[in-house]
Amino acid sequence: MEKTVKNEPKVTIEVTERGPLRVAGNFILKDLQRDNESAPGEVWLCRCGKSSDKPFCDGSHRK
Amino acid sequence: METGKSFSGGRRYTNGEITVFWKPDACIHATYCYRELIEVFDPGRRPWIDMKGATTDKIIQTVNLCPTEALTWKWNDEEKNNNTGPEQTNHIKFRRPELMGAAAEEIPEQPVTVKIMKDGPIVIKGSFELINAGNRKEISESIISVCRCGKSNQMPFCDGQHRKTGFQG
Fold it and tell me: Taking the model in full, what pTM does it have?
């Protein structure tokens, strides 16, 4: 039987410039602060500490 | 030098004298390894373990501080392993006996987990593509810790500033 080797990453983590962290693909998001777990497919996570919708970005970094 | 080779349940790294085994699933982020010996254990670097960064004694000492079996070690000289006592808390004999004499074995990839730590960073574990400042990098069975408080001096990675600034969220 032939084995297929996957080089394509299933998950991409992107540090956007002066913006949030984009996580896309097949991953599990565990929020230990708010005690929940999900598989959202894509999220934009706050990196500036100012979002009112943590852990997600709400655009506050621009203000 | 062989380094960062896959084995059952993680990766292994050697300096020719000892081999350090890394089992990401077992890590609880106690952070002893990089607080003690960042020259060898640097979560912001790839590969994150550099066996050339310190002496064998210092590496053994630091691996023994790991409170879980995430980091374990053995002598490459099997005879020396037989004479290793329990004061070497993280020798594979005491933490991961299944690795004694185990042959290298590729393991299926674990799903990527993205953890939001309490009042702390985003800890991402697994194999993924990291795009940072326009550069793409393949990260294989490893862990990165991304700053969430906005105050790190090692952006985009966490350097522990959230504790000093009292970050909440």
Answer: 0.54
